[in-house]
Amino acid sequence: MEDQNQPITDDDKYVYGNVKRLKRQGLSISDADFVAEGRIWQQLFADYLPQFTAFDPQLDSTYADQWLQELNRFSELPSDETMRDLMVQAQLDSVAAQQAAMTLADDVAYYVKKAYPKDERKADEFGFKLMRKQVAKPNIKFALYGFTLHRVYERYATALLAAGLPAGWEADYLTAIENSAGAHITHEWQKRERIRATTERVEVYNTLNSLWERVQEASRVIFREQEELRKLWQKK
Q1: DSSP structural state of residue 22
Q2: pTM, rounded to two decimals
């Protein structure tokens, strides 16, 4: 379970940036236990519905149905662990795509040096060092430098092909750098998806907590002379 009340870690700062973190209200228990307890409380509420409705007309079958619907909805939401796993996998895919593109960039670097052995600045013109600095982690600059490298390549293609660069290199490189850009977008999107999923999960959690708290408060009055019944809606 993701506990929004825990301190923000460096990893969370990387994922969330300055996004406002929502707070869970009420119980500090796991999602699984919260749902399990909630189903028990909701069923007990339905069993004693006449007493609750007589005390508060709004605590009726519609209220019971809403409670059950929210419980089912919460159970179907992906956990934060699931969303984090998807985000991490997208990050790994992005790095792998960058490395694949970098391998092809290194290939052409060989032919740049072969075609222009006396021009030490030619490698800087292609930007190989800039790309290598970005390859270890997802970074949109890698794709930026990668696409720019291709534009530089177009200027010197004739000389590079004459030096022996395979004719199919350009198509392979463009595919690789496009895949890298797409993988980076997917990684960024997955981070946004985690924010969305967290927002939805916390909002539903807080709704369920409010539904339970209202019934709990009512039960204290309705069953004030019946301690055992009053305890049925209390946190274990």
Answers
A1: P
A2: 0.75
